[in-house]
Every structure is written in C-alpha cells, then in structure tokens.
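Thread: "does anyone have the structure for this chain?"

Original post by V.I.:
We have the sequence but no experimental structure in hand. Need at least a predicted one for the grant figures.
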Amino acid sequence: MRNHQGAGSHGILAPATRLDRWLPVVLVALVLTSAVRYAGRHAVDGAGLLVLVGAGGLIVVYLARPLTRGHDRWPTLWLVVVTLSGPG
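Reply from O.Q.:
Generated one for you, tokens below.
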C-alpha cells in the first residue's frame, strides 16, 4: 500500500505545483482557440462581439486570481463574471 504522507501535494498526473503553472496556460489556450473558431464560423456582429468580449473577460478575471488571494470577494466576482458571460 502506498504511503499518503503529504496528501494534497500531488495530483493524479503531476505534482500540484506543476499543475498550478500549466492550468492557466491551458485555460487561456482553450478559450482563445474557441474564440478564434467562433469568429471564423459566425458573423462578428453585435452578438458575436459580445461573445468575444465575454471570452476575453473570462481570461482577464481568471488570470487576476492571484491578485485576489486572501480577499473574500473573489468567489463572488468569479460567479458574476461567469454568469454574465454565459449563453444568453
């Protein structure tokens, strides 16, 4: 049986510190790829522009998370941004 000393310090695939560095990169890459695909397949009219601005807002707020550590309002801000940028 494996020793679980230091539980929580390792993820399933890699140490948590490595995952913490890569997760923002992967999220930004996925959102940017989705935005480019959306812009290529839909008209960039008022609704399309709103979708792209929402995608940009998600990236900005997600990358601002480290600045909000220790503040109680971070979960509320994240919930508001995700809700407002969701589908109509």
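V.I.: this helps a lot. Residues 2 and 10 are 13 Å apart (CA to CA).
O.Q.: and The radius of gyration is 17 Å.
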